[in-house]
Specification:
Strands 1, 2, 3, 4, 5, 6, 7, 8, 9, 10, 11, 12, 13 and 14 form a 14-stranded antiparallel beta sheet that branches. A hairpin with a 5-residue loop joins strand 8 and strand 9. The chain is about 10% helix and about 45% strand. The chain is globular. With about 230 residues, the protein is mostly beta strands.
């Protein structure tokens, strides 16, 4: 069965069909397919790099970017909901909520197809001040590899590329375990000079709903949307 033409199928092309069937369904989320996906599971480990990284993580957490606390066996939810943003672009939310001790923490991202259709633009946080290019690849074992490219910072008239010294490369690997019937995800964020900064790994199950009838729940979309690609 051919999956609906989601933005993820568009960037992967024929390689989309090399993904595990469960990953194909999960990354068929979009306006064309009309499905939203909610993942519920456990982050077995959330880790941070050296101590000097923590103030930057805490600052990012004020805008729902990254996670300021480390931990083990943390319940979490990821919401992938397609919608049309204020600029008329198809968008898919990647909103992760971590049930950390004290209070939940969110890591918000909204994905949009680039104007050329060859990559995904990942807008981060409540105000989309940060944007990253994402490059998708299907691995031989049917898993999905996502690597970040250029990062940009936008605030008012400011639109600058984040230098490599300050920026980092994110790598996401997502797979499906047929034995347990669960998705597995592993994320690492690494700075070329300073080394590993942040990451997490865990597993979850997924359920699907009709995005057309359920819509987008209040609070899922960012407070400000960025038009610059």
């Amino acid at each position: 069965m051919t999956a609906p033409a989601s933005m993820f199928r568009t960037v992967l092309g024929d390689d989309f069909d090399r993904l595990h069937p469960e990953l194909r369904r999960r990354f068929s989320v979009g306006l064309a397919g009309g499905e939203a996906c909610t993942g519920r599971g456990v982050m077995h480990r959330i880790w941070h790099g050296p101590a000097y990284v923590k103030p930057f993580l805490a600052l990012g957490a004020t805008r729902n970017i990254l996670v300021p606390r480390a931990g083990r066996d943390i319940p979490f939810v990821i919401e992938n909901v397609p919608y049309t943003d204020t600029f008329g672009r198809e968008t898919v939310s990647f909103v992760r909520t971590f049930d950390l001790p004290g209070r939940p923490r969110r890591f918000d991202a909204q994905m949009v197809l680039s104007p050329k259709g060859d990559r995904i633009l990942d807008y981060l946080g409540t105000h989309q001040h940060l944007a990253s290019e994402l490059h998708f690849a299907a691995e031989p074992d049917g898993s999905l590899l996502i690597r970040s490219g250029e990062h940009r910072f936008r605030e008012g008239p400011v639109d600058v590329r984040v230098p490599e010294l300050l920026g980092a490369t994110a790598e996401v690997r997502e797979s499906f375990d047929d034995t347990t019937g669960r998705f597995r995800v592993r994320v690492s964020v690494v700075n070329r000079r300073f080394g590993p900064l942040f990451g997490y790994e865990g597993s979850f199950t997924a359920s699907y709903t009709d995005a057309r009838s359920h819509g987008t729940r209040p609070g899922l979309r960012p407070l400000r949307e960025e038009i610059r690609a």
